[in-house]
Structures are given as C-alpha cells and as structure tokens.
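hey can u check if this looks right to u? its 352 residues, i copy pasted from the old doc so theres a chance i mangled smth
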Amino acid sequence: MIVLGIETSCDETAVALVGDEPQPHICANLIHTQLDEHAPYGGVVPEIAARAHLDRIDGLIQRALDEAGVSVPEIDGVAAAAGPGLIGGLIVGTMAAKGIAWAAQKPFVAVNHLEAHALTARLSDGVGFPYLLLLVSGGHSQLLVCAGVGKYRVLGTSRDDAAGEAFDKTAKLLGLGYPGGPAIERAARGGNPARFALPRPLKGRDGCDFSFSGLKTAVRQIIADHPPRNTGDIADLAAAIELAISDTLIDRTANAVAWFRRHYPEGTTIVAAGGVAANGRLRRSLTDLAASAGLGFVAAPPALCTDNGAMIAWAGLERLRFGLTDTLDAPVHPRWPLDADRPGSAVAESTP
C-alpha cells in the first residue's frame, strides 16, 4: 500500500507518502516549519498557525506527490492528524485529506497524533509488539504499552506540564528562543549541571506519572535571585535543566520498565518518541536504562521524532491493514487521549 499523510496539529505543515513494500519506506516527506512566524511570541499562536497551514497545504501536497512519482489515483488511502492539537490546524489538514479522499474515492483515516508517534518506531526500525513507549513532546509526556495497532495501555501521564513545555518555558526564561528543547541542548554543551540544584519532581515515588511545573518555578526563582551574567552562567543553568528533565524521565520510566517486564515478559524493547526524544542526553540515559533491564532501546531518527507527515501516513497505513477507516464526517479532537474510543471509525480487530 501507499498512503498519503497530512500533519497540521500544531506549527508544522507536513505532507508525506509512505509505502510498505518490499519493506516500510518513505516515498516523500515534506515539512514547512513555522518557527519564524512564532519565534517573536516565544510559543505557538493558534491563529497564525492555522492561517499558515492554509497557505501551504495545497502546494505541499502537490510537491509530495511529484517527489514520490505517484498520482492520486495510485494511492491506497489518505490519512490526516485529527487530534489532539490546535483545532484550527486540525480542521485545515483533515478537510484537505477528506476532500482528496472523496474526490478520488479512497478510504480516509483520522489519525490520533499520539498513535502516529507511538507507531513511528515500526516504520523506522520494524519494532514488534509489544513494546514500552516513552512519549515526550511539547504537549505530552506519557508512558504506555503498545500491544498492537489501536491497543494501548497508558501507565502514566503528566499531572501538569509536559517535558517539552518545560524545555520551552525555561528556554524562554533564559532568552534562548523557541523551540526550547534544541536551544537548551545547544546552550548546555560545556555547562556544569551540578552548579544549580534543581528538583526532580516525583522522583523516587511509586507510579509512572510526571510533573514539571515545580521545575519551571525553581528555574524562574534562580533567575530572579541570580540573573545570568554571561554565557557561562547560561550554559550551567541550561545543563542543570537538561539533566533535571532527563533524570525525571528516567526515574519514571524505570518504574514503567519494572511493570512492563512483569506483565509483558515477551516484550523486548523500550521506544522513545516525540520531539523531546531527539535529545542526546535523554537517548544516552535511556540506552543505559534499557541495557540494565536486559531490553533493547529504539528511538526514531531525530527528523521523525518531531511532528511530520510520514508518521501520520504510516499510522494510516497500519490502520488500513485492518480495515480501520473513518467516515468523512469524522470530527477533529483537540483533546484525544490515546486510549479513548474512536467515534466515526470502522470496527476491526488488530493483532500484534
């Protein structure tokens, strides 16, 4: 199969085509990032994002088809991110996808953006079910078991802010710009993470939930009491932030690993997905954690960690294999937990 995927849930307008023969592969993967539009505001402005998607979506679809050497009649389905995300952007992407699906009489798949992240390791590395997933992005921090397509068990989630949001907000406090994760990672190189004492929220406690609001507050207080005076001060505080977030994620993931090994002894892999999974320190720490638990570790290439059309197309293809399609009046879901029911979806049973 070849599936067209459209991603417009936040501030990337992305279109891709993905195939599965002779093995999973990306035929085209185009992304227009809106960093310049949102950088002056230190975060994403929903109205600006929606208008930028509308301006770019048609051209990107045509360019992706041309790059893949595929015409619309030759594709097997159309998938679009239908949530969670910013409602204006979701509407732009899903309406474009529904229009193509209706005109070409192709099946439509309303993809949960989180499911797309969850399944990316199967596109990039062919990971088999079940596996333990750490999903960390600007809007989400979750630990879950991926037992099959459409079969997810959430073990823990953020009680307040996501890890990516913590990166964004602390980077803004340091004047490092947006997006915060890559900015903090760059600034932290050569810094001394031991210079500043920062909290690791919930570390050492039972369960798999996260909390990062206290970390943001601590950084704000340090900057208020001791304003950074030079690049060395910024590097040290950035390194402390990066280490604190990584330590927190590793601590909670270790609890999930223990649960996963008890309940899914056949599982062999820890997977990291989402934009924060591109962080080098976190990847190294997760590699060590997996090795100590006798598990493998997989993280998609950095380009597939951030929002992209290939992950949407792949999730659509995975669902199409089981006849899991959606009607053309399927709604968008600005809030859409991964383990929630899917209204407007055809019912079929998937197997690992």
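The radius of gyration is 20 Å.
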